[in-house]
Amino acid sequence: MRRSTLLVQVGVLARRSVVRTLRQPAMVVPSLVFPLMLLSINSSGLDSATKLPGFPTDSYFQFALAIAFVQGALFSANSAGTNVASDIESGFLNRLALTPLRRLALMVGQLAGILALGLIQAVTFVLVGVAFGDGIAAGFDGALVIVALSLVISLAFGCIGAFVALRSGSGEAVQGVFPLFFAALFLSSMSLPRDLIETDWFRTVATWNPVSYMLEAIRSLVIEGWDAEALALGFACAGGLALVAMLAASAALRTRLVRT
Amino acid sequence: MIGGAFWSVARAVAWRNIHNFFTNPAIIVPSLLFPMFFFTAFAGGLSRVDQVPGFDYQAGYTTFVYGFVLLQASTFGGIFTGFSVARDFESGFSRRLLMAARSHGGIVGGYWLAALTRAIFTVSVITAVALIAGLDVNGDAIDLVGLYSLAVFVNAAAMLFGTGIAMRLRTMQAGPLMQVPAFLLLFLAPVWVPYDLLTGWVQGAASFNPITLVLEAGRGFLAGDPTKVLPAFGVALLLAAVTMLWARGGLRSAERAA
């Protein structure tokens, strides 16, 4: 009985979250257009980098495709945070707090919209990779794994966005954190493989940066095929970040509801 | 032609904007962070690209990237000032200003002074970071005057473009209309590698992009090997002149609506 109630609560909130996210072109369109635009510009602008000895492919498009998935997930973080902040600012969360709604349902329901957006992004980027690149080296199964990993990455960044919103209660604060997410992407092995990064401090930062492993896991499936180590590291980093961020967001939600 | 009323209004508008810029972290932080991210990511993460066959820029990759980031910071110093104009319209401040100011041209002049100050501040910080990171300037004092003069023209053109949009639409929602064209113009130039190493459609776009000339001239000044100087200044002046007409049209539109 309790379980079915929880599922109903999750279902209702998830439906609201998905509909709300997909009804806002300002959230969906940039999260698809900007990563694709950057992919297109990067792949022509940096194609000569493939001539560096040791570069893993002769097509920069194949190399840069992974960036689109992570960049799309960063937009998810922004969307998740903005949606949660808007619920706080509008008083919706206060009203929910007066109902017997369970925190878990609220948390999972709020993130459903981000997962829906993440799914649209991942499928779009895979299709673009197949249509304009050399396909996915790991084949159809590899494409499914890319979509799965991409969803975990979206969940991880989405939870961080939700955490910031729940802690601050302000959409402006979420927007203010957005550049930091981009810093995480920029200070990774986004533009070159780690072993080709010449600047020592940058290579060290990229090695400690979990985003590098998320990129490398997707990249391995696109360029090489199946690489168990890269996949394990990618899923571990994305999953670990998702877990930590979800726990933090959950704690922030508890504090927020107590305050309410 | 430009009298006391112009400067009096310009000073007041500039002071208000500059004060807002330096006292509001939500405005100053993104202005600094974005060029810094680009500089760090490109100069640090892509430094090996200068070993690609055909990469013939002698001053090194950090200097190559600095040339772009300088241009980017100047452009966005202007574009972000366009955001401030839009914000002033949304808050109702600009409407009152248009009714009270003796010189409406002075309003645009004031925003230009603010844009210039923002760009000078951002460029100074980025230059300091770049010098620490190994920026190697081979150009002499005259080259540097040429380099920073180009940046001033680009900053003015970007500010006038953004102001023209902000004064026509008078809402912050016009932000992407200011940002996206500027972003595209900048990134469809030879950002990471010299023009000859570009491939595909980006090379075609770069050949028509006026910013390519400005960027190549700027990098030439940095390397102490001035190149395409006259065409670059011609393009920069033309951009400033065209956007001035665009901003003037925006001001007229705002006056009619006030």
Can you describe this structure?
The complex is a heterodimer of chains A (260) and B (258). Chain A has 260 residues and is mainly alpha-helical. Chain A has one domain (2-259). Chain A is 81% helix and 0% strand. Chain A is built from 10 helices and no strands. Chain A has helices spanning 2-22, 25-45, 60-90, 92-97, 103-132, 139-168, 171-186, 200-208, 210-224, 228-259. The longest helix of chain A has 32 residues, at 228-259. The radius of gyration of chain A is 19 Å and the shape is elongated. The mean pLDDT of chain A is 87. By secondary structure, chain B is mostly helical. Chain B has one domain. Chain B is 79% helix and 0% strand. Chain B has 10 helices and no strands. Chain B has helices at residues 4-23, 25-45, 61-91, 93-100, 104-133, 141-169, 175-187, 200-208, 210-223, 229-257. The longest helix of chain B is centred in the first third of the chain and has 31 residues, at 61-91. The mean pLDDT of chain B is 91.
Largest sheet of chain B: none
Distance between the termini of chain B: 25 Å
Average pLDDT level of chain B: 91
- Count of all domains of chain B: 1
Number of helices of chain A: 10
User: What characteristic shape of chain B results from the CA principal axes?
Assistant: elongated
What distinguishing features does this structure have?
heterodimer, A: 260 residues, mainly alpha, 10 helices, 0% strand, elongated, B: 258 residues
Topology summary:
The complex is a heterodimer of chains A (260) and B (258).
Chain A: H1 2-22, H2 25-45, H3 60-90, H4 92-97, H5 103-132, H6 139-168, H7 171-186, H8 200-208, H9 210-224, H10 228-259
Chain B: H1 4-23, H2 25-45, H3 61-91, H4 93-100, H5 104-133, H6 141-169, H7 175-187, H8 200-208, H9 210-223, H10 229-257
Helix pairs in contact in B: 1-5, 2-3, 2-5, 3-5, 3-6, 3-7, 3-9, 5-6, 6-7, 6-9, 6-10, 9-10
Short description:
Chain A has 260 residues and is mainly alpha-helical.
